[in-house]
Amino acid sequence: MSTKILESPKSGLGLWFSANRNFGIALIGVVTILAVWSIGAQLFGKPMLFPGPIVVGESLIKGLLNGSLITATGASLGRVFTGLIIGAVAGTILGLLSGSSRVLEALFEPFINMFRFIPPLAWFAPVMLWMGAGEESKITLIVYTSIFVVAVTTASGVKAVPKNMVRMARTFGASKFQLFYAVRFPASIPYTLTGIRIAMGNAYMTVVSAEMLGASTGLGVIITKGGATTNVPSVFSALVVLGALGLLTDRIYVALVQRFGKRFNAKLTAEL
C-alpha cells in the first residue's frame, strides 16, 4: 500500500514537483540571462555605455526609493490601459460589424488592413499638430495600435462560425439579431480575447514612443532623458520595469481568461 502511494502521481511529492517545475525552469532561464549579461558587460569594458546587472539593479533601487520610477510607472500604466480599453472596445465593434455583413466587410476591411500596416511612429507629426503634446495625443497613438488587431481577430471569429450552426439557428426561427447575439457574438469572443492580448503588447511597445511627445513623466521619459544624458543604467532600469510589467499583466490576463472565459471556450496559454 505504501509503495503505491509513493508511486502515485497524486502524491504530495509529485504534486510539489509538478507545481514548481515551471518555476524552476524559469529561474534557471533568468539566472542564465543575468550571467550572460554580466559577462557581456565585462567584455564590452565600458560600464557607462553597457552596464552590468548589478549597476542596473542599483539604479533600479534608487529610482524606487526616490519615487521617480514609481511615478513614471503609474503614468505609463494609466496611458497603456486607457488606450487599450478604448481600442479594444472600438476594435470589437468594428470587427463584429465587418464580420457580420458582406457590405460592411467590403466597406471596412480595406481600411482596416491598410491602417494596421502603418506604424504609430508614422503618425507622430500629424497627431502632434492636431492634438498637441497633451495626454490625448499619447492615448490616441495607443488606441491606434490596439484597435486594428482586435478588429481583425474579431472579424475572423465571426466568419469562423460553422455554416451548419447558422442554418440550424435560422431553422429554429432565429432573427438576425438573435443570430448575431446568440451565435456569432459568442463564437467571436475567444478570437477577440486573443486580439486584446496581442494589442496589449502593442500598447506597451507604443507607450514609450508616445511619451516622447512632451510627456512630463513616464517610463518613456526616463528612457529618453537617460539616452540624452548617457545615463544608461536608468534606461536599463526603465526597460526592466517595462518588461516586468508586461509579463505580469499578460499572466494576469491569461489567468482571468482561463478562469472566466471557459463558457465561451476561450483558452489562452502563456506560450502564445
CATH topology of the largest domain: MetI-like fold
Structural class: mainly alpha
Helical content class:
over 70%
Assembly state: single chain
First-last Cα distance: 42 Å
Strand tally is: 0
- How many domains? The number is 2
Instruction: Specify the CATH homologous superfamily of the largest domain.
Output: MetI-like
Question: With helices defined by DSSP (H or I, 4 residues minimum), what is the helix count?
Answer: 11
Q: What's the level 1 CATH class of the largest domain?
A: Mainly Alpha
Main pleated sheet:
none
Low-pLDDT residue spans:
1-10
- Annotated CATH architecture of the largest domain: Orthogonal Bundle
Compute the average pLDDT.
83
- Inertia-based shape: globular
Strand content bin: under 5%
Q: Please write the string of helix (H) and strand (E) elements.
A: HHHHHHHHHHH
Radius of gyration: 24 Å
Could you give the topology of this structure?
Blueprint: H1 2-7, H2 12-44, H3 53-65, H4 68-100, H5 102-115, H6 124-131, H7 135-159, H8 163-171, H9 176-210, H10 219-228, H11 232-260
Notes on the protein architecture:
- With 272 residues, the protein is an all-alpha fold.
- It has two domains: 1-45; 51-264, Orthogonal Bundle (MetI-like fold).
- It is built from eleven helices and no strands.
- Helix 4 (68-100) packs antiparallel against helix 5, helix 4 packs across helix 10 (219-228) and helix 6 (124-131) packs across helix 7 (135-159).
- The radius of gyration is 24 Å and the shape is globular.
- Mean pLDDT is 83; it is low at 1-10.
